[in-house]
Amino acid sequence: MYCRLMSGALNGASPLLVQVEACALPGMPQFNVVGLPDAAVRESRERVRAALANSGYKFPVRRVTVNLLPARQKKGGTCHELAMALAVLGAAGEIPLEHLSGILFAGELDLAGGVHSVSGIPYLIHQAMDSGLNTAVIPLGDAERFGSIEGMRILGVSSLQQIVELVRERCLSNLPDTALAGWEEFDEDLLESDVISESEQGPEMALERRLFTEHEPDFCQIRGQGMAVQAAVIAAAGGHSMVMAGPPGIGKTMIARRMAALMPPLSPVLRKKLISLYEIAGELSTGKVYQELLRGRRPFRSPHSGCTPPALAGGGPQASPGEVALAHGGILFLDEACEISRETLDALRGPLADGEVSISRIYQKVVYPCRVILVAATNLCPCGNRGDSNRECRCPSSVVRAYSRRFSRALLDRFDLKIPMDIPDSNDSMASSTRELRSRVQRARAVAARAYGDIEACNGQVSDQQAFQRFESMKSQKLGKAGERIIASWGRSREKIIRVAMTIADLEGAESGVSGESGQFCESGQFCESGQFCESGESGVQRVITLDARHLAQAAWYVNAPILKE
């Protein structure tokens, strides 16, 4: 007999629906799996056989072949095991087949017949909906975790025996939906301690409490370094990468670790994508990362200086996402960057330029998104005393040159902001609070999002065509020869100067009350929990954000500031 069911798995970060076919023919008893299975799928034969036996079902004494379509794509993981077991029973005539059409089956089996969680369930379900399926049978743990999805009936099962008996009794429709916390919504059960009534605290304070704890590190703890703090605001507002260079202990790491708090909450689409990436990487098991993503917090990744190119950019036997992909939509921080090997650092050049990392194998090509803000911090020499007026650097000039050359010219070109830093004076003032700086960043981001028509769009990460079109619309008539001279004089840096100058203009325009390219004046505005920009207040004064020579001059300094001098 022949049986066909629908299953699926993640192919990189994209869902792939798989038709699981089973055929039981007379002949020497065998159990073969074909359709480009990897080692994990081939091992599924033993788990399926044991799960059937321990659930009280006889494995057919026939030549059983399971085929995974499309056969041209390599299949990996354990997501197909529930469908394989049911298909074998269907091919052996043990269960009726008429009630199994239009259903997605996904789950991993243990030897006792239990059904366990797998990666990428929400994305498989949405892909199944697009393909016309109306029901999904998934592990009970995943059903309780992700909840109901509009337009799809979600059935959670804990064992193979449970689903087989329901199919045999033709009462699959009687299994109640598992409708818990919605996938599109925040999981309130995980956030009981953070929920504040908006009627008591207001929507902005409720969002503050949801995203950040009262013990969160604050920019107001940083003394001096006004130029570096301003660069951090520009980087967070425009999605620009930045590198800070100077002696140790002057605040480079403090600034970098506070930058993620400046950015707006994750949008629903980006949050889903990140949860998928973290599932593939196996980093959702602790629950803490999952809770932070549900809260809408941007990722902050800080790999060790001894990491390898596959760990940073992605790769390995399973083509897993690296640190740059796991920082998608957030910040990738490289502390002591010159201690990282040049080969590892140069692995970031392509992903930073393209906004995605492509990992190719013979039968597989996986693409992971990686729109990140790269922040690097480095000393000026191996001993760290170079640039410190109170200490003497004894590093030979040849060692200093070799140290600075860890950053290739091509990689340095990926940084929009270059910040040389000195030891602050004890009389220097403290920086503004994170709340004040975050308000500026979110308003500026809302300006750019409205201009580009995309909530996640920012000046440093849009295409060249979009950036130059917006530059032409923002360019002031007063730009004059001075502004044109600034742009022309820096050649290869022209694009970066324009992008940074637009972000500086957005920050100034947002502070003056301009809420968008249309020039509407708005007294208040903020990003809400869904990642959308909400505004309130009276509209009246018509203004337009303009970019002049002053913005270009500031941008030119940030883009071309001298660092890592030999």
From TrEMBL:
SMART domains: AAA (SM00382). Residues 300-319 are annotated as: Disordered. GO terms for molecular function: ATP binding. Coiled coil: none annotated. It comes from the Bacteria. Residues 238-425 form the AAA+ ATPase domain. Gene3D superfamilies: 3.30.230.10, P-loop containing nucleotide triphosphate hydrolases. This is AAA+ ATPase domain-containing protein. It comes from Candidatus Wallbacteria bacterium HGW-Wallbacteria-1.
